[in-house]
Amino acid sequence: MSGVWRFKNGVVRLVENPAGEQSSTMKRKALLHTPTNEVIRSYSSLERKLGGLGWERYYEDPELLQFHKPTSIDLISLPLHFARFKSIHMYDIVLKNRDFFRVVDL
Predict the structure, then answer these.
(1) pLDDT over 70 for what percent of the chain?
(2) Is there a contact between 6 and 20 (Cβ–Cβ < 8 Å)?
(3) Strand locations in 3-93, DSSP E?
């Protein structure tokens, strides 16, 4: 018997495929550039927005897309393919650029 035990509405039950159940209830997230109200849909768009904020591309690791700001020690590391761009990466960008980005539900 494998799975995850869930507690909901006072009832405990075993969910055998928690990923399948979550996908129907989870909302998709998107990164929003707040000054232009534009949803980021590609790395080229993101790179333009970050470049305008003083972030520079960092080519140290060929497996990652990385940006750094010369005036700070911050580093943004993203997966090489945009399809693997997840909410954790979005929140990292928001944390380092609070006034310019936010994460929204689609």
Answers:
(1) 89
(2) no
(3) 4-8, 11-15, 29-33, 38-39, 56-58, 64-68, 75-79
Q: How far apart are CA 74 and CA 45, in angstroms?
A: 20
Give the pLDDT band (50/70/90) at residue 104: very high
Cα dihedral 89, 95, 97, 98 sign: positive
| Secondary structure letter of residue 81 according to DSSP | S
Q: What is the pLDDT of residue 1?
A: 52
Q: Distance between CA atoms of 85 and 92, rounded to whole angstroms?
A: 11
- Cβ atoms 32, 102 nearer than 8 A: yes
Which amino acid, residue 28? R
